[in-house]
Design brief:
It is a single chain. By secondary structure, the chain is an alpha/beta fold. It has eight helices and eleven strands. Helix 1 links the parallel strand 1 and strand 2. The chain starts with a strand and ends with a helix. 56% of the residues are buried. The mean pLDDT is 98.
C-alpha cells in the first residue's frame, strides 16, 4: 500500500484548498487503496475571504485548522511529517496554494515558497518519489524544483504558463480531463479548475493524476 501525503492549504478555493479538487484527490487515492496522510502548515492564512461575496473579511484563520475541515480532523502539521515515511505527495490547488503555501498569487515569478513546503517537496523528489500537483499547485513545483526544468501544466492559461516558465519549468498545454507526466522527474500535473470546468471533468483529470502518481510510486 502506497503512503501518499496530501498537502492542503486551508479550506475554500478563494483562500485555501479548492474543496472539489481536495475531495476528488482523497476519493481517488482511497479508491486505489493508498494510505492517505493529510498535512498543512500550522500558520495563519494570508487572508480570509467570504466565499459568497468574494471579498476579504479581515478575520484571522489558521491554515491547519481550516484544512482539518476537509480531512475530517485527521491531519498533521506539515512540520511533523517525515518525508522519508511517504511514497509520494499530491497537492490540490485553490488560491491557498498561491497565497498560504507561497506568494505566487501576489508576486508571480518573483514569488517565494514556504520553506517547510519547499523542504518537503525537495526531500520527496530527491528520494526519487513522485509529486502530483493540481490546478495552480504546479507553481509550487516550479518554485521548489524549477532549476531542474520540470514539465508541468496549468491547462492553457498563457500568462500563468509564462510565469512558470520564467521559474525554469516547461509548460505543456493539457485539457481538463487529462494529466501531464514528466516521467524522468516523476512529476504529474493536471489543470482542474484552471478551466471553467464541471466537477466531473475536474475529478476525471485528478483520477488520472492519482493513477500516475501511484504508478510512479511503485
Amino acid at each position: 500500500m502506497a503512503r501518499i501525503g496530501v498537502i492542503l492549504s486551508g479550506s475554500g478555493f478563494l483562500d485555501g484548498a479548492e474543496i472539489t479538487e481536495a475531495v476528488s484527490t482523497l476519493v481517488a487515492l482511497d479508491r486505489a487503496g493508498a494510505e492517505i496522510v493529510c498535512m498543512a502548515p500550522d500558520a495563519d492564512q494570508r487572508q480570509v475571504v467570504d466565499h459568497r461575496t468574494g471579498k476579504p473579511t479581515g478575520e484571522t484563520r489558521n491554515v491547519l485548522v481550516e484544512a482539518a475541515r476537509i480531512a475530517r480532523g485527521k491531519i498533521a502539521p506539515l512540520s511533523e511529517v517525515d518525508p522519508a515515511s511517504l511514497d509520494g505527495i499530491v497537492m490540490p490547488g485553490g488560491f491557498g496554494a498561491a497565497l498560504n503555501l507561497s506568494s505566487f498569487a501576489l508576486e508571480g515569478p518573483k514569488a517565494s515558497i514556504r520553506e517547510d513546503v519547499a523542504g518537503m517537496l525537495r526531500a520527496v523528489h530527491a528520494a526519487g518519489k513522485p509529486i502530483g500537483a493540481i490546478c495552480i499547485a504546479p507553481a509550487l513545483v516550479a518554485l521548489a524544483l524549477g532549476d531542474e526544468g520540470p514539465t508541468i501544466t496549468i491547462g492553457e492559461d498563457a500568462g500563468t504558463a509564462q510565469a512558470l516558465e520564467a521559474l525554469g519549468a516547461h509548460h505543456q498545454t493539457c485539457p481538463v480531463e487529462r494529466a501531464v507526466t514528466d516521467e524522468a522527474k516523476k512529476i504529474v500535473t493536471c489543470p482542474a479548475y484552471m478551466y471553467d470546468a464541471r466537477p466531473s471533468e475536474v475529478a476525471a483529470g485528478i483520477e488520472k493524476l492519482v493513477g500516475e502518481v501511484l504508478r510512479l510510486a511503485r
